[in-house]
Every structure is written in C-alpha cells, then in structure tokens.
Amino acid sequence: MEIVLLYSTPLEVGVKAIRTCWQSQDKSDNMGEKDLSLVYRVANKNKHSSTIEHLSYTFYISGISRALLQELARHRMASLSVKSTRYTLKELKEEDPFCTADFDYKGWLTGKIDASGGYYSKRASKYLVWTENNRIDISSVVALENLRIQLKSGISNDIAKYCLPESYKTELTWSINARSLQNFLALRSSKAALWEIRDLANMLYNNLPENHKFLFKDFIYSN
Predict the structure, then answer these.
(1) Of 17, 44, 80, 162, which has the fewest Cβ atoms less than 10 A away?
(2) pLDDT for 86-127, tens place per residue?
(3) What are phi and psi of 118, to 5 degrees?
C-alpha cells in the first residue's frame, strides 16, 4: 500500500472560519500559538467541528484491495475516483498463467504451498493483496487465473469482472474534509477494524502535514 498527499487546505482557512463565527479576526496572531490553540479548542474540545469542514485533504492511494475499497465507500462524506475495471483489466489479459498445469491442489489444501512468498506469488503479487492466510491467498491466485482465462476467451471486461477476487488491487484519488477524517481515524484505527483499513488509517495520519496533526492526534489509536 502506498499513499501520497496531493493537497491540503492551509490551516489559515480553518482559523478564518472559526473567527468568522465570533467576529474575532482582530485577535488573530497570524497562525501563532493563539490561533492554533483556538482551532484545537473549538474543533476538538468544544466539538464545534463543522468549522473544520473547510479543511480538506486529497490523497492518492494505491495497492489496496477491493475489500478495503468497499469499506471506504461507507464513509459518505468523502469523494473517490477509482481505477476502472472496465478499461484496465486488459493488463491482466496478456499475462502468462498464474497456475501451472500441474498445480498441486492437494498441497494447497494441506497448506504446503506458500502463496505470499512462494512460486505462485511472484507475478500474482502485482494484482493481489496478501492476507498472510495461506489457503485464502492461494484461493485468490486460483481466482485470478480463472479471471485471466475468461478475459483471454474474449469475454468483455464488464462481464468478466464479476470473477474478481476481493483481494484484487486497486487505486484511487480520495478527498475528505477534516471533520470526516477525524471520524474515519477514530473508527478505522481501532483494533476492531479490518487490518488493512487500520493500516490505511495510520498511514493517512502519518502522511498529513505535521502542522495539521494536532487536529487528529485525539482520534488515532496507537497500535
């Protein structure tokens, strides 16, 4: 998984929004301790967090599974532009087989074949997120090969994509405002969250501008 912060709204915008409510612009200290303390107090302590909806962040996220993408879709106060399977499955169509003709299904069932570190992972890892559960990872490789076969047979991407395993990698541009990001981090950095989205939550926090992190430090669980 990789994350790149593409854009973040300057903190000055949040200060302006907060001071507008009380008409206290004349008390600003030009983003000094007084302004930063005000933002933290209003948004985090007093829970007047609608004022930080004016702060937004845009990330480029790659190497996540479609299972994680489905989890992201539950956060409605965010915008997603996702890699299209309709137009991009052709990259898989031209691959060599991921499972050889003498694929050892017995070895798979008994756990003797290692998907995440063995022969079957060398090219499949380009397309699949590994769970570290060997039987699930091998099942994903088999599903990937089945999908490749369907594409090779001439079935359209729109129909063949119904064979996609949940572990299939995707990428997206994701935008979210600060209030919604606080909520996202509180829910998704928890140990109760899916391991992959928990990793994402921590990476998102780590990629925030250093001078913005004080807004989110109360919402991120330490692992």
Answers:
(1) 162
(2) 888 988 988 888 876 555 555 555 555 555 555 555 788 899
(3) -100, -165
Residue 170 vs residues 63, 104, 126, 163, 173: alpha-carbon distances, Å: 6, 29, 10, 15, 11
Asked if residue 223 belongs to a domain, the reply is no
Indicate the number of domains in the chain: 2
Query: At a CB cut-off of 8 Å and minimum separation 6, what does 102 contact?
Result: none
Contact (Cβ atoms closer than 8 angstroms) between residue 6 and residue 173: yes
Confidence bin at 197 (pLDDT 50/70/90): very high
Q: Is the pTM of this model over 0.85?
A: yes
Instruction: Determine the Cα–Cα distance for residues 204 and 175; give it in Å rounded to an integer.
Output: 12
Q: Which domain, by its residues, includes 8?
A: 2-83+169-215
Nearest CA-CA partner of 68 in 144, 163, 160, 165: 165
Do 136 and 127 meet the contact criterion of CB atoms below 8 Å apart?
no
Domain contains 222: no
The domain that holds 207 is classified in CATH as: 3.30.1360.170
Whether residues 14 and 53 share a domain: the answer is: yes
Angle between helices 11-22 and 33-40 in degrees, nearest 10: 80
Q: Are 95 and 52 members of one domain?
A: no
Rounded Cα–Cα distance for residues 152 and 166 (Å): 21
Side-by-side strand order, sheet with 56-65:
2-8, 56-65, 169-177, 78-82
Which residues participate in catalysis according to the annotation? 188
Sequence-ordered list of residues with C-beta below 8 angstroms from that of 123, at least 6 positions apart, any chain = 95, 96, 98
Residue pair 68/194 in contact (Cβ under 8 Å)? The answer is: yes
